[in-house]
Amino acid sequence: MSDVCNLAWWQKTIAYEVYPKSFLDTAGQGTGTIAGITARLDYLHSLGVGALWITPCYKSPMVDNGYDVQDYYAIDPSFGTMANMDELIERGREHGIRVVMDLVFNHTSNRCDWFVESSSSRNNDKADWYIWRDAREDGSAPTNWRSIFGGSAWEWCEERGQYYLHTFAKQQPDLNWECPEVRKALFDIANWWANKGVGGFRIDAITYIKKPPAFEDGPIDGEDGLSPIHDATANQAGILDYLHEFKASVRDGRDIFMVGEANGVDAKDLDQWVGDEGVFDMLFEFSHMHVPVGKAEIWCRPVTWKLTDLKRALGASQRATATNGWYPAFFENHDQPRSTVNFFRCDGPLAKKAKVLAAVLLSTRGTPFVYQGEELGYGNATWRSIDEFDDVQTRAQYEFALSEGLDEQAALAACARFSRDNARTPMQWDATRNAGATDGNPWLPVHDDYPTCNVAVQEGDPDSPLLWYRLLAALRTSHTELVAGDWRELLADDERILAFERTLGDRRSVTLANFSDEEAPYDTAVVAGLAPVAESQGPTTAGTLRPLEAVIWG
Ligand code: GLC
Fold first, then answer.
1. Among 440, 469, 498, which residue terminates a domain?
2. Does pLDDT of 302 surpass 90?
3. For position 2, what pLDDT does the model report?
4. pLDDT tens for residues 175-230?
5. Per DSSP, what are the bridge partners of residue 489?
6. Is 116 exposed, middle or buried (0-12, 13-18, 19+ CB in 10 A)?
7. Among all residues, which ones are annotated catalytic?
């Protein structure tokens, strides 16, 4: 059993993810700035936030909104300057909020100096910094791998007369971690940022850094004749050796945390990745995110699912981190559609759904990661045409859907349901023009519902998701079992209610969340001896949850 006193700062706090391009624009340019984040530190503080993950804001051509880094030591001018960043780190600390940088180390931008040099010839100093291969005899790509953003994962480079590998967009060439100079250059970057006083790192796409010993064709699974690169390259044997080196160089001896993005690691393998013997403090694994979309994440191939599928996935992650490591709880991030749409199969008000998810997120065991706007309960945006999307992956999924024989309307519907741009529309601060997020022309359309769903309106509404988040954040302080207690699933087979208890010494809380639009009876024995301490729809009745009601008993 843990005790709150024995936990690190990042285990006790709430983390919040900001997508800076859409948060708050202080320059009237249509995209957000770092100064905009600094201006909202009070707001973040009011949500109990102690760790602030900012998606990449380094100098970048922005093909993938910053996940294509040109210079890891510079801030992109669209976001401001390094002085703005230093100020955010400093002012954040004054608010008890530590900045968490996003390290994109699987790949760089093709405009990064490293790649420019590497691609210039076969015998320059950085010739083996990326993954280069000769063409097959007929001139075609070395393997049939499909990149995660669609199309071949290989791009021909005329200057070198070779192909290079890109797991993501062709403007994001994969680095060669086999090369010791590459590892050193990357660890230097992380140490440089750590020395600035950041509170930690989120490590992007880390399961792809180690390539297989032999590059071979994989089974074709679509009309494009390609095979998913993920199946050939994710989580290869030997990857942990590199990451132990990384941890020793960057993490050891510092009061920071590292959370890896680890698509391809199953809950059952978590103990090698996190905890005393692991390489990270926490790992974002995606078993629960795959429930509504399927493991292959092909948006035009719908999957059917039940609440017990979601419960099994969440339960497996909890059990895997029960005695070793720590769990980063999340329902949203900048790569996912809005959770109020993603995790419910019934109709009903989004605000009620948002409160159900928040009750689970903030009372389960682990550090909750809230994604900007999640606390307001947005739904997905309304998309009228494929041209309205900015995201490189959405465009690729659209083309793939057409190649699979879907008509334009069906392909658009699949993108509208799953697109990452749903999470990237401007933050809804108030009912003024462009939701108060920018005075310029917003880079993505502002959500239709912003006049009624925004921070200013919700601050005055006692039933709002925002005030529910604040209440739950406060509850974590008064009910220490919600932070440090053990976790045990209740009502495991129930298809309407997700339920668990948290226990710490003689303290006990029970979370009951009805994910359906029907009344959901339950055995009152599960809450015996407890009283409601947070009720999402006003005074509750023991033994029954109203449709989309969540209650924490303590
Ligand atoms: C990660 C990021 C995503 C990005 C990709 C490539 O999955 O979260 O936004 O597109 O890596 O860097």
1. 469
2. no
3. 60
4. 999 999 999 999 999 999 999 999 999 999 999 999 999 999 999 999 999 999 99
5. 500
6. middle
7. 204, 261
Please tell me the distance between residue 56's alpha carbon and the centre of ligand 1 in angstroms. Answer: 10
Tokens 């201006």 correspond to 39
Examine the domain organization and report whether 463 and 399 are in the same domain: yes
Residue ending a domain, choose from 469, 500, 522:
469
Which residue carries 């022309």 as its tokens?
Answer: 441
What letters, b where the CB count within 10 A reaches 16 and e where it falls short, cover 95-106? eebbbbbbbbbb
Same domain, 218 and 291: yes
Q: Which pair of tokens denotes residue 100?
A: 């968490």
CB contact set of 413 (below 8 Å; sequence gap of 6+): none
**Tens digits of per-residue pLDDT, 219-249?**
999 999 999 999 999 999 999 999 999 999 9
Q: What percent of the chain has pLDDT over 70?
A: 100
Check whether residue 398 and residue 507 sit in a common domain: no
For residue 457, the surrounding DSSP H or E stretch is helix 455-459
Ligand 1 centroid–CA 21 distance in Å is 15
Within 6 A (CB) of ligand 1 lie 64, 67, 104, 168, 204-205, 261, 334-335
As separate numbers, helices (DSSP H) first and strands (DSSP E) second, the chain gives 18, 22
How remote is the CA of residue 177 from the centroid of ligand 1, in Å?
Answer: 18
Chain-centroid distance of CA 53 in Å reads 10
